[in-house]
Amino acid sequence: MSGSRELKERLRTARGRPLASQRWLTRQINDPYVHEARKQGYRSRAAFKLIQLDQRFHLLKPGLRVLDLGAAPGGWAQVAAHRVGSSGAVVAVDILAMAPIPNVAILELDFLAADAERMVLAALGGPVDLVLSDMAPPATGHKQTDHLRIMALCEAAADFATRVLAPGGGFVCKVWQGGTESSLLGGLKRRFAQVRHAKPEASRKESAETYLVATGFKG
Description:
The chain is an alpha/beta fold. It folds into two domains: 1-30, no CATH class; 43-217, Vaccinia Virus protein VP39 (Rossmann fold), CATH 3.40.50.150. Helices cover 37% and strands 22% of the residues. It has seven helices and seven strands; from the N terminus they run H-H-H-E-H-E-E-H-E-H-E-H-E-E. The protein has a seven-stranded mixed sheet, with helices on both faces. Helix 3 (47-57) crosses helix 4 (75-84). It is globular and about 40 Å long. The relative contact order is 0.13.
């Protein structure tokens, strides 16, 4: 990445801010992916995680129907829309409101709602080729609790994916490294031809996040 040089800017507005807030802001202003996201017009640095996963696994192709779960603020949906092109379709789902994204249909919706499956399939015009989930619940600061919460969210996303995916489709989901993934992995391995772990370069080294990439949905 062209913006991968180390930046060493100091926070100029630290007075009155909690220490945790100061650390987060300092990290942001010195993060090359934050700078590059602004430069390229992406809504978040997370866009580069999907770009790097796509470079490795070739997930996004012209003409695909893509569903982005928990899409706000929309960085992954932006990448997906660009790569599937005008012949494809992208639906972004989130309980939070989002500003419009070119060539993306936005549903302000809880994907766990009873009518979510119907609404997604209607918006995409048919079964989904790729389900993306970069969702994470608000952190509590308790490592084990946060891990269990994100795994529950990932399991819900995986269940939803198996109900809307077309045969041969794929599923990408953020998980936390921690050791309670066996049931999720077992289920995915039964339903998909291949399941792999990946940690893109854009994921911060200190973060416990990694991604499950499941391809070849068996239907």
